[in-house]
Amino acid sequence: EDFLNLIFKAMMKDSLNSSRPVSSAVQSSEQIEEMFDALSYIKGASLLLMLKHYLTKDVFQAGIEVYLHNHNYRTAQSDDLWDSMNEITNGTLDVKKMMKTWIVHKGFPLVTVVRKGKLISVQQEKFLYRVEPENWTSDASYLWHIPLTYITNRCNFTHCTNAYLLDQKSG
C-alpha cells in the first residue's frame, strides 16, 4: 500500500508538463544531483516492475543475472541492462527499444480501450493532469512501446495470460 501511494505521488508529478525524463544527458554535477529524486527512483522501480511482469519473473531474473555477471565491479549504463535483457529474450523482443521510450520521454501514456463486440482497440496519448502554460511543449510525437497483458474467458486466470505490445498510436 505504501509503495502504491509513492507510485501515485510520482505519477502526479510526472503528469505535469514540467516533468522530465528518467534519463537524460547532463552537463554538470548539479544536474546529476537533480536527476536522483523520488520521481527517478519510483518511476524507475515501476518501469522495472512493468518489464518483469511482461517478460515473466524467470526471464527478468535471468536478464538481471546476466547484467550483474557482465558488469561485475564495473560501471554500467541503462543500455547495458536492456542489452542483457535482449540477450535473454534471444531477439524475440527488443527490450532496449521498448524501454528507451519510457526513460527518454517525460510523463506517461493514457491508454484508451474500446470494445465493440469481439473486437478490442487500444489507443495511446500522452497523459497530462494539468497544462501549465509557462512550461508548455508539444508532446504530440511521443510514442511509448506499451506492454499490455490480458486474459480471455477461455483462461483459468493463472496460466493463460496473453501479451500485446502497443508500439503505435493505436492497435
TrEMBL record:
It holds the Pfam family Peptidase_M1. The keyword Signal does not apply. SUPFAM superfamilies: Metalloproteases ('zincins'), catalytic domain (SSF55486). GO terms for biological process: peptide catabolic process; proteolysis; regulation of blood pressure. PANTHER family: LEUCYL-CYSTINYL AMINOPEPTIDASE, PROTEASE M1 ZINC METALLOPROTEASE. The keyword Protease applies. InterPro entries: Peptidase_M1_aminopeptidases, Peptidase_M1_dom, Peptidase_M4/M1_CTD_sf. This is LCAP aminopeptidase. Keywords: Aminopeptidase, Hydrolase, Protease. Residues 5-102 form the Peptidase M1 membrane alanine aminopeptidase domain. GO terms for molecular function: metalloaminopeptidase activity; peptide binding; zinc ion binding. Transmembrane segments: none annotated. It comes from the Eukaryota. GO terms for cellular component: cytoplasm; extracellular space; plasma membrane.
